Amino acid sequence: MALQRLISPKQAARAIGVSESSLKRWCDRGLIATERTGGGHRRLSIDAFMTFVRDRGFPLVEPSVIGLPELSGVKGQTLAEARDLFRKSLVAGDDESCRRIVHDLYLAPHSLGAICDEVIAGAFNDIGNLWSCGEVEVYEERRACEIAARVLHEFRMLVPPPPPAAELAIGGSPEGDPYSLATTMAELVLRTEGWRAVSLGNMLPFDSIVAAVVRHEPALVWVSVSVIADEAEFISGMSRIQDEVQGIGGVLVGGGRALTPEIRKRIRLSSYCDTLQNLETFARAIRARRTRQPAAAREDGQLGP
Ligand code: B12
Predict the structure, then answer these.
(1) Among residues 147, 236, 242, 253, which is most buried (max CB within 10 A)?
(2) Residue 223 CA: which ligand 1 atom is closest?
(3) Which ligand 1 atom is the nearest neighbour of the CA of 185?
């Protein structure tokens, strides 16, 4: 059964093993955001329900009722153990097991940044090592990327949508860089931190990133850099992006294995984050600072980004 966007109180109640009347009472007390159908029936959005379940620590006793995978059993495990299981499931091409592991860890609750860094990226690091010693086939690695992308895209539905006044964040991987998982993760992590984050994908020409900054005036721009195809082009492209971002009072965050200390000395970033957990912390701090600072003061250049 596919994940459902809207669920009934009956389905929600069954999923966590409580009575329908208790569930409806929580809806009516505003503990779970609820919509009404034309006929007056209550409907819960899946992200609001999952936020409630996660915050209150309810166990999911029958997740399949709302289209979620059965539990994986990793909930009581360490992230290192989960990484191992995730890697095995990825290499085996087991979509369902990968979905389960990520859902369970999120409900545990671990931050999405920790799940991405420690479990997903960790498992890919291990897959890379296995591939380089001939223990994993190229097709197994590519299939693993497809699975991870599907799990992350499905996850977007479970994360609460950004609040209406949320600030915009955009980002991606620059030209010559085919790596796509890290930018998808950055988008998700920023969304969990209350940003209206939109990943523009991989292989983005520098001038196109600049065009997006000019057109949409994001408060935060991220670049994920795993490969630098042409160093001189890269330095000059990053400089054009930074000029534009600075001009609109935004911040430019960089991450990725190709941003070595030597390269970082030659580019200007508001911040370099080596992990998505650091991005979580940075994004939270920037959001708090921008909420305190009136936009006019930022535009006047009275205060730094
Ligand atoms: C999947 C993969 C690919 C896929 C990617 C597909 C896709 N759709 O993304 C493809 C097929 C493109 C690929 C190609 C190649 N690959 Co490759 N690849 C990998 C692998 C297994 C996983 C990379 C990945 O996506 N990881 C998941 C992400 C989320 O994790 P991450 O990159 O580590 O990022 C973390 C941090 O850096 C940080 N971060 C990253 N970006 C950002 C951005 C921000 C804003 C922030 C805050 C943080 C942040 O947070 C992330 C999570 O912790 C790695 C192994 C490894 N060690 O990572 C090899 C690896 C990188 N590849 C390698 C190689 C050799 C190649 C090829 C040369 C193979 C070949 N002969 O063709 C080509 C080169 C392609 C090119 N043009 O350069 C080597 C590189 C060795 C080296 N020293 O340079 C590795 C290390 C494998 C290995 N152990 O040998 N690869």
Answers:
(1) 253
(2) 45
(3) 29
